[in-house]
Amino acid sequence: MKSMFKLPLVAVAFAMAIPFSQAEDAATPPPPPPPPGEHGPGPGGPGHGPRGDRFKMMVEKLNLTEDQKTKIKPIMEEEMKAMAAVRDDESLAKGARREKIIEIIKRTRDQIRPLLTPEQQKTLDEMKERGQGGPRKEKAKEKAKE
Known about the structure:
By secondary structure, the protein is mostly helical. The chain has a domain at 49-145. The protein has helices at 2-27, 54-62, 66-88, 94-112, 118-129, 136-145. Helix 3 (66-88) runs antiparallel to helix 4.
């Protein structure tokens, strides 16, 4: 007989606990917005959205030395500022915006390339061919010029 009363009591206790667990979720504040001039994850995020931080990727894939990191990081930061300015420029048409971003990426690559060893340059070229070093449209344009 006692077990018949325990089951409804347990069910009532769970039913009463549900609103309290949901209230805790609602009380959790949203994450702070990214600092001005930076974009959050996703399209327009750091280093082309889903690809993540391009500098971090370069450090890992190219096995950069500390000296290379100190020289390349400001170049990448300048690239991100320039790209953010282009993305935020509403006066540019989509095609013009894309062309400017391609120019920025090419300029950045041209500045970084001399800082790399021949082996790292080869790896950078392979990254570009796989679409990890810039827009694929740039690759198609270069092939068309050849």
